[in-house]
């Protein structure tokens, strides 16, 4: 009989390229990495500021990535992009949340390619 389980390391609770934030309650991508379908990957934290770790919009002030996505990736993202034509920078795609119940107030956001369900 095979029994499945997982290992828990109190000193390393997050995945690769992540760190614990927000009062030791959640893992966020390290600076220079962005959330993707396969975890935190080296990303586009460039002049736009995309991928910078944040807990509120205040952490993203003064850069193009001025919206703090604080539910999943906990990173600064570029808001108000257009889906057609997609005007996000390379490696990202514009995602619309229009018509998704509970997300009506979320602007269009540039997310890492492969995360949009448009």
End-to-end Cα distance, whole Å, is 43 Å
Tally of contiguous helical segments: 0
Beta-strand level of the residues, as a percent range? 25-35%
**Most strands sheet:** 2 strands, antiparallel
| Computed CA radius of gyration, to the nearest angstrom | 15 Å
Q: Which segments are poorly predicted (pLDDT under 50) over 5 or more consecutive residues? A: none
Mean pLDDT: 79
**Structural class category:** mainly beta
N-to-C order of helices and strands:
EEEEEEEE
Helix content: under 10%
What is the general shape? globular
- The count of strands amounts to 8
State the strand order across the main sheet: 1-2
Q: Which helices and strands appear, and what pairs or packs with what?
A:
Blueprint: E1 18-21, E2 26-29, E3 33-36, E4 39-42, E5 67-69, E6 75-77, E7 92-95, E8 109-112
Antiparallel strand pairs: 1-2, 3-4, 5-6, 7-8
Give a quick rundown of the structure.
By secondary structure, the protein is mainly β. It has strands at residues 18-21, 26-29, 33-36, 39-42, 67-69, 75-77, 92-95, 109-112. The mean pLDDT is 79.
Overall description:
The mean pLDDT is 79. The protein is mainly β. It has a two-stranded antiparallel sheet with strand order 1-2.
Q: Which features characterize this protein?
A:
single chain; about 120 residues; mainly beta; about 25% strand
């Amino acid at each position: 009989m095979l029994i499945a389980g997982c290992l828990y390391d109190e000193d390393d609770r997050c995945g690769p390229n992540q760190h614990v934030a927000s009062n030791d309650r959640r893992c966020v991508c390290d600076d220079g990495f962005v959330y993707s379908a396969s975890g935190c990957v080296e990303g586009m934290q460039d002049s736009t500021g995309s991928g910078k770790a944040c807990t509120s919009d205040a952490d993203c002030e003064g850069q193009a990535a001025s919206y703090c996505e604080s539910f999943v990736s906990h990173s600064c993202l570029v808001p108000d992009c257009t889906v057609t034509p997609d005007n996000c920078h390379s490696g990202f795609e514009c995602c619309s949340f229009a018509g998704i119940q509970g997300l009506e107030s979320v602007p269009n956001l540039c997310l890492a390619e492969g995360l949009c369900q448009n």
